[in-house]
């Protein structure tokens, strides 16, 4: 599977995230000869333990999430970031979780937007919105380098692409930038060869950064 | 959803059963070596207490594969009583190898574990039917697969299952039931928890099968 980096939009201090930034990013992709290929969508669910006695709280994770990825429609990925756990499962695992009734999905988010082909790269730019809402909470960007599956081997070419992207985007004078979280995949038991589990972990980290930033939101 | 029946057979008759199954199923047998872990939720977790099974297929290459399985309630009522097989909800999902660690983190504890060793046949006969014949083994120490010993020495369990849907479970149950009749000389199969013991004439049936490799009609 090709190496993929998942970047997120970090607004400057005092700035907000908005659809306008998403539109600028999409136009930027086209300005560097990106060919629009269609839409993409991913879904992320935050799970909360269901407790019979609210006053008695066993030691349970507060960052248990599940994600359904656009590239893997028959799979589902669980991540517990604090424990460095990532699990790949068939999509039917969601039915099992419903039957168990021990955890319920309390917050669900969509990532959706457009996909572009740029030579050997595939770019996806998308907004982060709560399900049943149009309030944009963030912007993510996936950069995929199709010829290579090794994280290490792809590093240099990915860094160069991201630099070109930053340069192209800087001409639009936006208040913020796309950031790539450096993370140690080895801590999650993941190897150098890229897999969808790597993508799941990156999304979990991106969401943690977005929540930590706690930016004000604007409609649409 | 699945249809299930099971029964017990003396280990000395397993070879004869294998010959019979080979003839009936028309497929190659597969080795079965599955480590089954039953996990239960810690107190206070969940609307109700819950249980989930993790199955590790130890014979897969290059490394063991894991499945999560949730077994739910059985079909009830007059209709269910008419059916000779158990029909129950069942959901399975393949998972990556650290699923056990994930469930431990989520507040599930190991309730008990077993090692099932034997063989299985998977074939199509109106429904997709699986027959497994295995010894059930317990471990003296946690996860000590290599030290597992039979729970009931000299006896093995035969389980016949077939996946079903709410729309087709009657047909699937009939297919399973019909298939089980062929095994009646060696093993009596019934709904789980309704034990009927071994077949008293199994020895004669087994001798017949072993003497001519299964060519005799029972």
From TrEMBL, chain A:
Subcellular location: Nucleus
The UniProt record lists the keyword Signal: no
Tree of life domain: Eukaryota
Chief place where the protein resides: nucleus
Record key words, sorted: Activator, Nucleus, Transcription, Transcription regulation
InterPro entries documented for this protein: Mediator_Med20
A biological process from GO: regulation of transcription by RNA polymerase II
GO-annotated molecular function: transcription coactivator activity
Record-level GO cellular component terms: mediator complex
Assembly description: Component of the Mediator complex.
Function description: Component of the Mediator complex, a coactivator involved in the regulated transcription of nearly all RNA polymerase II-dependent genes. Mediator functions as a bridge to convey information from gene-specific regulatory proteins to the basal RNA polymerase II transcription machinery. Mediator is recruited to promoters by direct interactions with regulatory proteins and serves as a scaffold for the assembly of a functional preinitiation complex with RNA polymerase II and the general transcription factors.
Family listed: Belongs to the Mediator complex subunit 20 family.
Protein name: Mediator of RNA polymerase II transcription subunit 20
Organism annotation: Brassica carinata (Ethiopian mustard)
Gene: MED20
Automatic annotation (TrEMBL), chain B:
One Gene Ontology term, aspect cellular component: core mediator complex
InterPro entries: Mediator_Med18 (IPR019095)
Domain of life assignment: Eukaryota
Pfam families attached to this UniProt entry: Med18
Annotated keywords: Activator, Nucleus, Transcription, Transcription regulation
Molecular function GO terms recorded: transcription coregulator activity
Compartment(s) of residence: Nucleus
Gene Ontology annotations of biological process type: carpel development; miRNA processing; negative regulation of DNA-templated transcription; petal development; positive regulation of transcription initiation by RNA polymerase II; regulation of defense response to fungus; regulation of DNA-templated transcription elongation; regulation of photoperiodism, flowering
Subunit record text: Component of the Mediator complex.
UniProt record similarity statement: Belongs to the Mediator complex subunit 18 family.
Role noted for this protein: Component of the Mediator complex, a coactivator involved in the regulated transcription of nearly all RNA polymerase II-dependent genes. Mediator functions as a bridge to convey information from gene-specific regulatory proteins to the basal RNA polymerase II transcription machinery. Mediator is recruited to promoters by direct interactions with regulatory proteins and serves as a scaffold for the assembly of a functional preinitiation complex with RNA polymerase II and the general transcription factors.
Protein name: Mediator of RNA polymerase II transcription subunit 18
Protein species of origin: Brassica oleracea var. oleracea
Taxonomic lineage from the root: Eukaryota, Viridiplantae, Streptophyta, Embryophyta, Tracheophyta
UniProt gene name: MED18
């Amino acid at each position: 599977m090709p190496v993929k980096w998942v970047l997120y939009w970090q607004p400057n201090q005092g700035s907000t995230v908005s659809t306008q930034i998403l539109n600028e990013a999409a136009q930027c992709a086209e300005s560097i000869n990106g060919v629009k290929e269609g839409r993409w969508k991913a879904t992320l669910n935050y799970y909360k333990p269901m407790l019979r006695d609210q006053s008695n709280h066993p030691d349970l994770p507060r960052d248990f999430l599940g994600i359904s990825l656009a590239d893997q429609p028959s799979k589902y990925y669980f991540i517990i970031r604090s424990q460095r756990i990532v699990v790949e499962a068939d999509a039917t695992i969601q039915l099992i979780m419903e039957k168990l009734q021990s955890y319920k999905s309390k917050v669900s988010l969509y990532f959706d937007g457009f996909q572009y082909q740029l030579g050997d790269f595939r770019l996806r730019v998308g907004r982060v919105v709560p399900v049943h809402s149009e309030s944009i909470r963030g912007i993510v960007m996936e950069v995929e380098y199709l010829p290579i599956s090794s994280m290490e081997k792809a590093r240099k070419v990915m860094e160069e692409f991201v630099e070109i992207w930053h340069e192209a985007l800087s001409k639009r004078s936006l208040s913020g930038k796309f950031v790539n979280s450096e993370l140690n995949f080895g801590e999650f038991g993941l190897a150098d060869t890229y897999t969808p589990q790597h993508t799941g972990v990156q999304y979990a980290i991106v969401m943690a950064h977005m929540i930590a930033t706690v930016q004000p939101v604007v409609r649409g | 959803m699945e249809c299930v029946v099971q029964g017990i057979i003396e280990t000395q008759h397993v070879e004869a059963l294998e010959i019979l199954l080979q003839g009936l199923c028309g497929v190659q047998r597969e080795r079965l070596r599955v480590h089954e872990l039953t996990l239960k939720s810690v107190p206070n977790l969940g609307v109700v207490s819950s249980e989930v099974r993790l199955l590790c297929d130890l014979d897969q290459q290059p490394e063991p594969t894991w499945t999560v399985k949730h077994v739910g309630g059985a079909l009830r009522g007059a209709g269910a009583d008419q059916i000779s097989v158990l029909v129950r909800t069942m959901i399975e999902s393949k998972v990556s190898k650290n699923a056990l660690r994930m469930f431990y983190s989520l507040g599930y504890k190991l309730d008990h574990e077993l090692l099932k060793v034997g063989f299985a046949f998977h074939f199509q006969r109106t429904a997709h039917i699986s027959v497994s014949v295995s010894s059930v083994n317990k471990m003296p120490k946690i996860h000590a697969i290599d030290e597992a010993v039979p729970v009931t020495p000299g006896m093995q369990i035969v389980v016949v299952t077939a996946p079903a849907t709410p729309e087709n479970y009657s047909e699937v149950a009939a297919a399973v039931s019909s298939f089980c009749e062929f095994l009646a000389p060696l093993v009596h199969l019934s709904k789980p928890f309704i034990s009927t013991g071994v077949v008293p004439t199994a020895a004669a049936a087994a001798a017949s099968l072993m003497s001519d490799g299964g060519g005799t009609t029972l």
